[in-house]
Structure formats: C-alpha cells, structure tokens
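Q: Got a minute? One more chain.
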Amino acid sequence: MNHYSNNKVKYLCQRFSAFFVDCFIVFIIYLSITIISTRILKHYLSKEELKSLFPIFIYIVNISALLIHAFYFIVIQSKYKTTIGKYIFKLKIIPEVEESIDIMTMFIRYLFFEFPITGFISAFLIIFDDKNQGLHDKIAKTYVVPM
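A: Always. Here it is, folded:
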C-alpha cells in the first residue's frame, strides 16, 4: 500500500511539515497557558511566595504541556483521523485493515513516536520504508495517506 510511490519527496515534505505545524500549535497552546497562569499567580502572590512555589509551578506547567500534547495527538486524531497540520497538508490516518481507528490505536501511535529513540526510528523509517510507515505506524497498524 504505497500511497505516494510516484512522488515520495512531496509526501515526505507534506508529512513532516504537518508534524511541525502540529508541534507549533501545541507549543502556542502551552505558551498561552503558561503566560496566563503566570500572570494570575503574579496578581495573587507576593514575590516570596512565587519564589517558594516556582518549582511546583514548573512541574505543573510541564505536566499540563504533556497532557495538552497527548490530548492533541491522541484524542483529536482518534476522533477526526487527522490533526490541524495533517488537514492543512491534506493528509489523514487510515487503519491497515478495514476497522475503525480508536483511541487505543492513537495512544499506541503516540507512545511509540514520542520516545526519543522510537521517534527517531519512526522518522527514519518514514523516509526509507516502501509503505511510508514509521515505527509508530507499523506497531499501530496505520498509514498516513492523502485525503
């Protein structure tokens, strides 16, 4: 099932560009939450209180960033079979076999793409695999294809 055998470079540009758009969107959401929560805390707490709570604040912000990232890539993709980045570049996720893509499938995809080693292997495989699948696609039994 090679969906871009004639134009691999175009496919790779679309797929990696879509990923960068998605990461930018998640970053903007994360940055917005950080700025808003910082302003709220500055309004209600003294400088001494802020200094003492800073490590906890950083921990909470990092956990919220992880949850936002996971929500975006797991829940959004399981519901719409695409992300904003993939939609802009006219890509969608389909299952290897005729069955619906559920939240567990997207969780598996996410898990195997987010670890640094498996993420690198996935990016490498997408470039050289005949079916354009990364490791996360192979394990979750999915393809990213044109709409």
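A: The mean pLDDT is 85.
Q: Perfect, thanks.
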